[in-house]
Amino acid sequence: MSINNFFKLIVSIGVSEAAGIIGAVFTMPAVQSSWYTELVKPALNPPAWVFGPVWTTLFALMGIAAFLVWKKGLDRRDVKIALGIFLGQLVLNTLWSIIFFGLHSPGGAFIEIIFLWLAILATIITFVKISKPAAWLLLPYILWVSFAMYLNYAIWMLN
């Protein structure tokens, strides 16, 4: 791997993980607060310790996927568009944590997660045209967000 590609890989993973870190700033205090602990949660709600490793892995996979697209060249219009959509879904991902945990708004977060899911789907569709492996790397992400959508809705309805 060239130094230039290694740099792109580190930046891609770093940007993706940074989105997770920003989200965690809002998530961590809320998860330990009485607001979250007192919420009625659905039967399929995983233990809190599961979320950190899962999200860290998903953000790393997102970063690798972005790298595979970026290394095709920013001189290509389709690469610029795909990475723009990718960055947009990262912003939506971070906003979900702010809305759900920071603002204590499961209803608002549910509406937002629908847009996040659509943005992930758009990212996959644009990535597959550039790099099939990049698109496949996002499959666990959209599956996990689909599960998170169920959890979000259930928490909203139960509370």
Descriptive account of the structure:
The protein contains seven helices and no strands. The chain has one domain (3-158): TspO/MBR protein (Ferritin), CATH 1.20.1260. It is mainly alpha-helical and 159 residues long. It starts with a helix and ends with a helix.
CATH-defined architecture: Up-down Bundle
Overall, the morphology is elongated
Q: Structurally, how many domains make up the residues?
A: 1
Percent of residues in beta strands: under 5%
Class based on secondary structure composition and strand pairing? mainly alpha
Overall helicity: over 70%
CATH topology assignment: Ferritin
Order of helices and strands: HHHHHHH
Query: Cα distance, first to last residue?
Result: 51 Å
Going by CATH, the homologous superfamily would be TspO/MBR protein
Supply the key terms.
mainly alpha, 159 residues, Ferritin, elongated
Helix and strand arrangement:
Elements: H1 3-31, H2 34-37, H3 48-70, H4 77-102, H5 106-128, H6 132-137, H7 139-158
Give a brief outline of the structure.
This protein is mainly α and 159 residues long.
